[in-house]
Design goal:
The complex is a heterodimer of chains A (59) and B (554). Chain A contains two helices and no strands. By secondary structure, chain A is mainly alpha-helical. In chain B, 51% of the residues lie in helices and 12% in strands. In chain B, helix 18 (470-489) packs antiparallel against helix 19 (497-513) and helix 20 runs antiparallel to helix 21 (538-553). The chains are: A mainly alpha (59), B alpha/beta (554).
Chain lengths: 59, 554
């Protein structure tokens, strides 16, 4: 019924795999940085419909 | 000089950032000040002059992910959004959003010469918290923790500026106040909502107590709730503007009103910036110390459960504020934006807060008030002692594996101690955060830094160690053992848990001062007891206490 979280999770999984590969071969490179940023943006969507408040720490 | 302020949270947080932006402008008069907020919340920068506002297009970047599951296209859009910002080559980045996204963005937008405060990333990608203010927020700022520093002041510290009262003035000119009260029925989160029927009761009581008009405000999606409430009243006295004001218009309306009433939400932060006194309803789902109103004369009515705040109490307190009277019921109150909240007939757990003050502001360490505090500190002392021994063992290759395992268990036990006694949680959070801040380095460097931190933890917890008097402690151990024995023999260990923990603590303390207990070795005695405990053989535990320990200590 609600396929969006599943879609996001699938994308996130693929991204995490690619980022891990890039970091293991090229280190924390420019591409790895932006992929990690994208990963976190998707995680935010999964954990909260809204961006986190400044006063709610996400570790 | 080109400065970027990152604020990727919501409306209320952006308004709480305004004082810091003003202070940055004052302290760096020739600098270009850029502010990056999420596109959706960009309106919260309207009316702030002298900055270049940028918006972060989250929805646009993620659109290919949502529609086609295409992360490659999203990645391209992301890089396109980053490029113009990177070209600006900021000299200073101030990240005021405490989130992973902002930490990666701050890192990506940095150049070799950029000075960054707030969350960013180390060269190996791990979270880097370069400044003490952000580390403080990481450790103590979460809701449910004991922080009492206001977020506006924390933002100022992260940005390395000194705030003044003037920084909290959003509008250049003072407006004449009308006989009107602005009320916001909504809140930033559903958990912080006061029920509409109770709001209606507040308005009803308020109308009976005074002649002011009441104006309802809020976002378009709060319109139906506001209409349901407003329709119960004479429209000459109660005006419903919910969903009809821009944020700039709301700011002006607040500046012309005598009072704002609401829960923890953006209009409350906006009212504070117009020096309008705020009457805020707060509960444990928000931390008013951190995000409560800052305008002078504001008050906070607090109950653990928001619904426990009676409408009559709200209406009477509002009346008292309008009439310049002292607080009518228990509340927190504010006398200025840079002054801490005062408490009127209201009290909170001061121990944890004083512990925070001691850790971060060189205050005195508070006296332990209850046995559980002393026990908690004692356990932390023992763990730090054990950790230091294991770190020393790391030098010996054949002991390294075992030491690593023990250190891992120590980590879990630290968290467990803080869970069991949240009053001492600030110390554990401080320690964990400082450990996280250890930068990438060689194994030796990391080991030295870790050792230094455990030494600090040991020094702090040593303050709370009982003064050891072997004779007195022996008597105490015998007394505790005798108290625990009947329950242990009847398999009711849980009923004497506190006494048993105290007994173990006392035994460990005694063992530190002598290798022998009577004719026996302390190490043999404690190992025997621990083995029996590990097997959950309570009869054996009781026998050890009754036939070995008590005679040896007597």
């Amino acid at each position: 019924m609600n396929e969006t979280p599943e879609k996001l999770k699938a994308v996130l999984e693929r991204l995490e795999t690619s980022t891990r590969k890039i970091i293991s071969t090229r280190g924390y490179s420019k591409d790895a940085k932006s992929l990690k940023l994208l990963e976190e943006m998707i995680k935010e969507q999964l954990t909260n419909a809204y961006p986190s408040s400044s006063t709610r720490t996400i570790r | 000089m080109r400065i970027l302020v990152l604020q990727l949270a919501r409306f209320g947080d952006i308004y709480q950032t305004w004082p810091t932006l003003k202070a940055l402008q004052r302290q760096h008069p020739g600098a270009e000040l850029h502010v990056l907020v999420r596109h959706r919340f960009r309106e919260a920068l309207n009316g702030f002059n002298g900055i270049t506002a940028h918006s972060w297009p989250t929805a646009d970047i993620l659109e290919p992910v949502y529609t086609k599951g295409d992360e490659g296209a999203a990645h391209d859009l992301l890089k396109a959004a980053i490029a113009p910002l990177r070209e600006l080559e900021f000299h200073k980045i101030v990240n005021l959003s405490f989130s992973p996204v902002s930490s990666y963005l701050a890192d990506i937008l940095s150049h070799g010469h950029t000075e960054t405060t707030g969350y960013t990333r180390f060269e190996d990608g791990f979270l880097n918290i370069p400044d003490d203010a952000s580390a403080y927020f990481f450790a103590q700022g979460e809701i449910g923790r004991s922080n009492r520093f206001h977020v506006t002041q924390i933002f100022g510290l992260v940005a390395q500026v000194d705030l003044t009262d003037e920084d909290f003035h959003a509008l250049p000119e003072k407006r004449e106040r009308k006989e009107q009260i602005v009320i916001h029925l909504g809140a930033s989160q559903s958990l912080r909502l006061y029920p509409p029927d109770k709001w209606a009761a507040v308005i009803r009581e308020g109308l009976a107590l005074g002649d002011e008009n009441w104006i309802l405000v809020g976002s378009p999606d709060e319109r139906s709730m506001a209409e349901a409430v407003a329709s119960q009243f004479d429209q000459n006295r109660v005006h419903n503007l919910t969903g009809q004001t821009t944020l700039t218009g709301l700011m002006q309306l607040l500046a012309e009103s005598r009072l704002f009433i609401g829960c923890d939400s953006a209009p409350s932060q906006m009212a504070s910036l117009t020096q309008t006194p705020v009457l805020q309803l707060s509960s444990e789902t928000a931390n008013f110390w951190t995000t409560g109103p800052t305008s002078s004369g504001s008050r906070v009515l607090y109950e653990a459960d928001l619904e426990s705040i009676a409408p009559a109490r709200v209406a009477k307190e509002a009346r008292a504020m309008l009439d310049g009277e002292t607080a009518h019921s228990p509340c927190a109150y504010r006398t200025g934006p840079l002054k801490p909240f005062g408490l009127h007939e209201l009290s909170f757990n001061d121990f944890s807060w004083h512990l925070i003050e001691a850790l971060y502001t060189q205050g005195s360490y508070p006296e332990a008030e209850i046995e559980a505090d002393l026990l908690g500190f004692q356990r932390l002392f023992e763990l730090s002692e054990l950790a230091l021994a294991q770190i020393d063992n790391f030098q010996v290759p054949e002991r390294r594996k075992t030491s690593a395992l023990i250190l891992k268990n120590i980590d879990q036990m630290l968290t467990e101690i803080s869970r069991l006694n949240p009053r001492i949680d600030p110390l554990v959070q401080w320690f964990e955060t400082e450990r996280l801040r250890i930068p990438p380095g060689s194994a030796e460097e990391t080991l030295v830094r870790t050792k230094n931190l455990f030494t600090d933890l040991q020094t702090i917890t040593a303050i709370y160690r009982r003064h050891v008097e072997p004779a007195g402690d022996s008597r105490r151990a015998i007394e505790l053992a005798r108290r625990c024995l009947p329950a242990i023999r009847e398999f009711r260990m849980a009923s004497v848990q506190d006494d048993f923990q105290s007994l173990l603590s006392t035994l460990h303390e005694l063992s530190r001062h002598s290798t022998k207990v009577g004719e026996a070795e302390w190490s043999t005695m404690l190992t025997g007891l621990n083995d029996a405990l590990g097997r959950r053989d309570l009869i054996e535990v009781a026998d050890q206490l009754e036939y070995v320990l008590i005679p040896a200590l007597s």
